[in-house]
Amino acid sequence: MADNNNKVKIWIQLADANQIALSINPDEEENYRKAEELVNTLWTKWMNRFNDASSDVLARVAFQFARLYLEAYGENRMVNDFLTEMDNQLDTLLGDGE
Predict the structure, then answer these.
(1) Is 36 part of a structural domain of the chain?
(2) CB-based contact 19:12 (threshold 8 Å)
(3) pLDDT at 29 (0 to 100)
(4) Three-state SS across the chain?
(5) Which residues is 9 bridged to in the sheet?
(6) Most C-beta atoms within 10 A of its C-beta, which of 20, 32, 58, 74?
C-alpha cells in the first residue's frame, strides 16, 4: 500500500450530487471509477423507473449496494471458514508437519 506521498487526487460524480474529491493510491483508481460507473448506471436506471426525488433514488442505490456487499461478505466468510477447516483437517492428516 502506498503512503500519503504517492496518493493522487480524483473527483467522482455520483448521481446529481456535488462532486467528491478523494485522495487514493493510483493503483486503486480503476476500482473507484468502476464503482462510480455502477452507482451512476443504477441511479439513472431507477430515476427513469421511479417517480422519486433524486436523493430518494440514491438512497435506494446505496441500500442495494450495501445489501449486495453483505451477501458477498457472508459468502466469502463461509468459503474462508471452509478453507480453514480443510487446512486444519489436512494438518491433522499430515501430522501437523512433524
Answers:
(1) yes
(2) yes
(3) 97
(4) CCCHHHCEEEEECCCCCCCEEEEECHHHHHHHHHHHHHHHHHHHHHHHHCCCCHHHHHHHHHHHHHHHHHHHHHHHHHHHHHHHHHHHHHHHHCCCCC
(5) 23
(6) 58
- Which grid coordinates belong to 15? 448521481
- The total of structural domains in the chain comes to 1
The three-point CA angle 57-13-50 to 5° equals 15
What local confidence, expressed as pLDDT, does residue 13 receive?
96
- As given in the structure block, the three cell numbers for residue 10 are 480524483
pLDDT in tens, 43-53: 999 999 998 99
Domain containing 75 equals 29-93
What band does 24 get if pLDDT is binned at 50, 70 and 90?
A: very high
